[in-house]
Every structure is written in C-alpha cells, then in structure tokens.
Protein: Organic hydroperoxide resistance protein
Amino acid sequence: MEGGRLAHGRASGRARSADGTLQLDFRLPAELGGEGGGTTPEQLFAAGYAASFHATLSVLARETGADPAALTVTVTVAVGPDPAGAGSVLRTEIAVAWPGVGDVRRLVERAKTLCPYAKLG
Structure:
C-alpha cells in the first residue's frame, strides 16, 4: 500500500497495483471511529473471493452441463477474535444462489476443494 498510515490497527491510505489498473482509498470505517468513505480490506478480499468462487463454479457448470448464467455468489467477510487468542482472524460466509440447478450443495462443496480462496486457512 502506498501512502498508508495505521489507525487502530487498520490501514488508511491509498492502495495501487503495480500496473496502476487498481487504485483504491482505504479508510477506517466510521463505525470503528474512522472517517469512512473508502474501501475496507475486507470488502476487497470479499470481492476477490466471490469472483474466484464464481469462476470455479462456472468451470464445474461446464463439466456438469449446468447453466452458469443465473449463478450468484455472495461472500461476506468480517474480522473477529482468533479463537486461539492470537489477535484476529477473518471470518467468511459464502452464499450461492443458482436457480434451476438441483444439486447446488454438492457443487459448492466441490468448489471449496478447488477455489484457491476457499483453501486459505
């Protein structure tokens, strides 16, 4: 991250990819005492996770003959206390809506073994 500062253990500043195609302002959320008005690391992680999981399910759709056009993947990410007592951990929740597909649960479970984001931690 370029030009960042640390506020309450959270980064506020500007993030930029090496090629310049991604440029974001990170801000501590207002509910945590920050100024708000920017992206949080959790939002960015959720977007990447959802895109990767959607792509994985789309590959599985081609293998099974399912139509990925109606597939929706929503990922919610939050920071919570580490059960081991060592700081914090990310908590994720995946919701998949796929109308017209009978065995969505089986495909989601298979996707969890293939998607690189689902393999974290």
The helical segments are 41-64, 104-114. Strands lie at 2-7, 10-16, 23-26, 72-81, 88-97. Confidence is low (pLDDT under 50) at residues 1-9. The chain has two domains: 2-32, 41-114.
